[in-house]
Specification:
single chain; alpha/beta; D-Maltodextrin-Binding Protein, domain 2; 2 domains; ten-stranded mixed beta sheet; two-stranded antiparallel ribbon; 14 strands; about 35% helix; elongated; disordered N terminus
Length: about 290
C-alpha cells in the first residue's frame, strides 16, 4: 500500500514539475517569454514598417537596420496570426487593427488607444494618407468619393474603426456617376472598405474598388494612373514625386506580443534594441 502511494506521489510531483517547466517557457522573471525573442516585421514597401522603423529609431540615415533574422509578414492579418501563434514573438500593427488574439504593450508608460493617439501622448503614431496626382484634377466620381471620405460625415465611420478622423467639412455630393479605384496600404484598407460601404448609401451611382497591397504600391499606382486614389500609412518620400498626400486619419502603431507573454510594457529604446539585434533574449528586458 505504501509503495503504491509513493508511486502516485512521484507521478504527481512529476506532473507538477512538467507544468512548471511549461509555465517557465512562457514567462520569465515577470519580463515575458523566456529564451530568444522572435522578431516579426512587415515586408519592404509596407507603410507600417516604414513608419515604425523611423519612429522607433530603427531607421537611421535612410537605412532600415531591422535584424536580418526577423520573420517577414506581408499584411496586418498575417502579422496578427503570426504573433498569436508564437509565444516568443514580438511584432507591430495598426492600433485600429488590434484584436484580442494578441496583447498590446504600453510604450514608455502609455497604452496605445484612440485617445492617446488623439492627445499625442502615445509616441508611435503616424498618418493614414490618401494620395492623388499633383496638379491634376480627379474625375468627378473620384472627387465625390474624396470629398466624402474627407468630410465630417465620414468621421463617425473612421472613429468607430479606431482612428482619429481629420475631416472638418460636411459632405455634399456633386452628383457624379462612374467608378473609382483606390489602391495601396493593407493598414488603411480596412477603414477604406468601411468608408466605401458607407459611401454607397449616399451615392449609389459611384462604384468604388478598394485594392489592397502596400503603401509603396499605392503611391506608384497613383503616379502611373493605375488607380485614382492611393493609400499610404506613412508620409510620402522625397523621391515620390508627381503626387501629393492628404491626411485621412491619425493612427497609432501598437507593439504586440503573444497573449501568454507576461510582459505588459516596453520602452522605445528597448524596441529599437530588439529590432536591431542588440537585445535577443526576453530576460534582458528585466535586467535594464
Amino acid at each position: 500500500m505504501e509503495l503504491c502511494v509513493m508511486k502516485k506521489m512521484t507521478k504527481i510531483a512529476a506532473a507538477v514539475a512538467a507544468l512548471g517547466m511549461m509555465a517557465s517557457s512562457l514567462t520569465g522573471c515577470g519580463g515575458g517569454a523566456s529564451g530568444a525573442i522572435s522578431v516579426i516585421t512587415r515586408e519592404d514597401g509596407s507603410g507600417t514598417r516604414g513608419a515604425f522603423t523611423e519612429l522607433c529609431g530603427i531607421m537611421e540615415d535612410d537605412k532600415d537596420n531591422t535584424v536580418s533574422s526577423a520573420e517577414v509578414t506581408n499584411s496586418t492579418a498575417v502579422m496578427l496570426t503570426t504573433v498569436a501563434g508564437n509565444a516568443a514573438s514580438i511584432g507591430y500593427v495598426s492600433v485600429g487593427s488590434l484584436d484580442d488574439s494578441v496583447k498590446a504593450l504600453e510604450v514608455d508608460g502609455v497604452a496605445p488607444s484612440v485617445d492617446t493617439v488623439a492627445d499625442g501622448s502615445y509616441s508611435i503614431s503616424r498618418p493614414f494618407n490618401i494620395v492623388t496626382k499633383d496638379g491634376e484634377e480627379l474625375s468627378d466620381a473620384a472627387q465625390d468619393f474624396f470629398n466624402y471620405i474627407m468630410s465630417t460625415d465620414a468621421a463617425d465611420v473612421i472613429s468607430k474603426e479606431g482612428y482619429v478622423a481629420q475631416g472638418t467639412e460636411s459632405y455634399t455630393s456633386n452628383g457624379a456617376k462612374g467608378s473609382v479605384v483606390v489602391a495601396g496600404s493593407s493598414s488603411v484598407t480596412p477603414v477604406m472598405t468601411k468608408l466605401k460601404e458607407a459611401y454607397a448609401d449616399v451615392n449609389p451611382d459611384v462604384t468604388v474598388d478598394v485594392q489592397q497591397s502596400d503603401s509603396t504600391t499605392g503611391v506608384t499606382s497613383t503616379q502611373e494612373g493605375v488607380c485614382d486614389i492611393g493609400m499610404a500609412s506613412r508620409e510620402l518620400k522625397d523621391t515620390e514625386t508627381g503626387v501629393k498626400s492628404t491626411v485621412l486619419a491619425m493612427d497609432g502603431i501598437a507593439v504586440i506580443v503573444n497573449k501568454d507573454n507576461s510582459l505588459d510594457a516596453i520602452t522605445k529604446d528597448q524596441i529599437k534594441q530588439i529590432y536591431t539585434g542588440e537585445i535577443t533574449e526576453w530576460s534582458a528586458l528585466t535586467e535594464q
